[in-house]
Design brief:
mainly beta, 510 residues, four-stranded antiparallel sheet, globular, 33% strand
C-alpha cells in the first residue's frame, strides 16, 4: 500500500483539483479488496466439504493410508542388534540419551565368567561417580594357559552420562562435584594355570565391626579342578596403599579334585549357609556338594548326585530352602534336588526343551519362579508350584533316553524367542521380581519387564516392529557377551563380560 501511494501521488493531487477525489477513493477500495482476496474462496462449497477433506485438503482415508505406508517403510529399516547384520563399513554406536551410565573397560585376557562383590559402601546408592568391586577368571589363548589369572577388581570413577543444559539439575544423585571423573580399573592378580569356566563369590559375615567380612571365591577350571580362594586381603589392599600381597596369599585355600579331569560349568554357593556350601557339576552329569567346616577346612560328599543324561550347565541354590538346589542340563531338563535325600536322586524332573538348557536363575523375591535360557535362543519363566514330584525319586535308575519315564512335562508362565542365538546368561533383578537381564550369543544383553501385560486386542509387537515383544525394555550391544549380573547395592546397574572386556551400565529404563 505504501509503495503505490508513493508512485501515484501526483495523479491523486490532480484528480482532487478537478473534483474527482470521491471516484478515485472508490477505485482504490476495489483494488484493495482484490489484493487481499482469498484465492481459494471457491474451492469448497460448504462446511461439510471442508470437514470431509481433512486438515490438509485430502480425504482422511487417503492420508491414513499414506501414513501407514510410511510406518511400514520405517519398520523395514529398523536395525535390531543380533538379528540384522552390519555392512562392511558399518559400526554400532550407543545412543547416549538412553543411558544413565555407560563404561567399557578392558582386561589383558577375555573373561568367560565374573561375579559382583558385596561392599561396605552402602545399599541403594545413587550418587555418581559410582564404585563397585568384582572378581573374574580369564581365558588365555591356547598355548598360553599359564598366563591365566583370577582378577580381583575395583572399578571407580564411573560417572554418569554427560547431560545437556536442558536437563534438570535437581536430581538427588547429581550432588557430586566429580561426576565427570574418568573411569579407573584397578586389579589384583592371582595366578592360575587353566581357564576359568565359572566363578562365584561368597561372603562370610564379619564377627565384629572392626573386622571386614571374609570374601571367598570358588572357580571351576577347564582342568576339572575347583579352586577356593580367600580374596579379602586383595580387597582391603585397594584402600590401603603400600600393602604387600605375598605369594602365599595368592594360593587357594583348597583345591577340590572330585571331578577328576572332567571340566564343568555348574557352580553356585548357597546363600543360606554362612560358612559356605558349594554345589559343582561337570560335563559327565555328576553333581558334588562341598561344605565349609570349622577351622577353615572343606568337606566334599564323595557320592555325587546323578540323574542327568547330559552335562551340567547350571546350578542354582534355592533362596529360601537351605537344602534345595536346581540343576539345568544339556539333556533339556531341569531337576530339583534335596541334599538330605539318601538316594541322591532328584525330587523333581521336568523336560523343558529339546535342546540344551544353558543357564538358569532362581528369583530372589518370588521363590517359586525359575528362569531358564536354552541353546535355541528361547528363554522362559517357570512356576515351580506346577511341577509334580518325581515318582522315581526313591532311586529308580534313569532310562537311556533323554526323557526318562520319571521326567514330567510343564508349560512356561512366559516364554520369549526374541534371541536367535544361544542364551549364555540370565539373572533376575535383585529387588524387582518382574525385571530380568538376558545375555545371548547374538552379542546382545537385553533387559525385560514381565509386568507388561497384553490385552487380547493389543499388539504383541513393539511399536508395530515385528517380533519385538512389548516386555523388551532395552537392547545393549556387547560383542560375544558371556555373562551378565546386576549390582545388588546400586539399583539398575548391570555388568557384562565379553570378547571386548567388561561393560557396566545403567539405563533410563530400569
Amino acid at each position: 500500500m505504501g509503495k503505490r501511494l508513493a508512485d501515484n501521488g501526483q495523479e491523486e493531487f490532480e484528480a482532487s483539483k478537478s473534483g474527482a477525489r470521491q471516484q478515485r477513493e472508490q477505485e482504490r477500495a476495489v483494488e484493495d479488496a482484490e489484493e487481499f482476496a482469498d484465492e481459494y474462496e471457491d474451492e469448497f462449497e460448504s462446511e461439510d466439504e471442508i470437514f470431509e477433506a481433512g486438515v490438509d485438503g485430502r480425504p482422511d482415508d487417503e492420508r491414513d493410508a499414506e501414513e501407514q505406508q510410511d510406518a511400514m517403510d520405517l519398520d523395514a529399516q529398523t536395525f535390531i542388534p543380533g538379528r540384522n547384520k552390519l555392512g562392511p563399513d558399518e559400526t554400532l554406536a550407543p545412543d547416549p540419551s538412553t543411558y544413565v551410565m555407560l563404561h567399557t573397560l578392558s582386561t589383558t585376557w577375555p573373561c568367560l565368567s565374573f561375579d559382583m562383590l558385596q561392599d561396605n559402601l552402602g545399599d541403594k546408592r545413587t550418587a555418581f561417580p559410582a564404585t563397585l568391586y568384582a572378581v573374574a577368571g580369564s581365558q588365555a589363548s591356547t598355548g598360553r594357559e599359564k598366563e591365566n589369572e583370577l582378577l580381583v577388581m575395583k572399578l571407580s570413577g564411573l560417572s554418569r552420562m554427560e547431560r545437556t543444559r536442558g536437563d534438570s539439575d535437581s536430581d538427588a544423585d547429581s550432588d557430586s562435584d566429580d561426576e565427570d571423573a574418568e573411569p579407573i580399573l584397578e586389579s589384583k592378580s592371582l595366578p592360575l594355570s587353566s581357564t576359568t569356566n565359572r566363578i562365584r563369590a561368597h561372603q562370610v559375615p564379619q564377627l565384629n565391626s572392626s573386622v571386614p567380612p571374609t570374601t571367598i571365591t570358588a572357580s571351576m577350571a577347564e582342568s576339572g579342578a575347583v579352586l577356593i580362594h580367600n580374596i579379602t586381603p586383595h580387597l582391603t589392599a585397594f584402600d590401603a596403599p603400600g600393602t604387600i600381597l605375598t605369594s602365599q596369599l595368592n594360593k587357594p585355600l583348597a583345591t577340590l579334585r572330585m571331578h577328576k579331569a572332567v571340566e564343568g560349568y555348574g557352580l553356585d554357593w548357597s546363600p543360606l549357609h554362612e560358612a559356605g556350601k558349594l554345589a559343582t557339576g561337570d560335563n559327565a552329569g555328576s553333581i558334588y556338594i562341598t561344605t565349609g567346616t570349622e577351622g577353615g577346612n572343606w568337606a566334599t560328599d564323595s557320592r555325587p548326585f546323578t540323574g542327568h543324561q547330559g552335562s551340567i550347565e547350571e546350578l542354582q541354590w534355592s533362596p529360601t530352602e537351605r537344602n534345595v538346589f536346581a540343576s539345568a542340563s544339556s539333556d533339556g531338563t531341569v531337576k530339583v534336588w534335596d541334599v538330605r535325600s539318601k538316594s541322591h536322586r532328584p525330587s523333581l524332573s521336568v523336560q523343558l526343551s529339546n535342546v540344551d538348557i544353558n543357564v538358569a536363575s532362581w528369583s530372589q523375591q518370588t521363590s517359586h519362579l525359575l528362569a531358564t535360557g536354552a541353546d535355541d535362543g528361547v528363554w522362559a519363566v517357570w512356576d515351580l508350584r506346577r511341577w509334580k514330584p518325581t515318582p522315581a525319586a526313591g532311586g529308580t535308575a534313569p532310562s537311556n533316553s533323554s526323557t526318562s519315564a520319571d521326567t514330567a512335562q510343564s508349560s512356561a508362565v512366559a516364554s520369549f524367542s526374541f534371541h536367535k542365538q544361544p542364551i549364555t546368561s540370565l539373572e533376575w533383578h535383585p529387588t524387582d521380581d518382574s525385571v530380568i537381564s538376558v545375555a545371548s550369543a547374538d552379542s546382545t544383553l537385553t533387559l525385560w519387564d514381565l509386568a507388561v501385560e497384553l490385552d487380547d486386542d493389543e499388539s504383541r509387537d513393539t511399536a508395530g516392529v515385528k517380533d519385538v515383544p512389548p516386555q523388551l525394555l532395552f537392547v545393549h550391544y556387547m560383542d560375544s557377551v558371556k555373562e551378565c549380573h546386576w549390582h545388588r547395592q546400586i539399583p539398575g546397574v548391570v555388568m557384562g563380560t565379553g570378547a571386548a572386556g567388561l561393560s557396566v551400565f545403567k539405563t533410563i529404563s530400569v
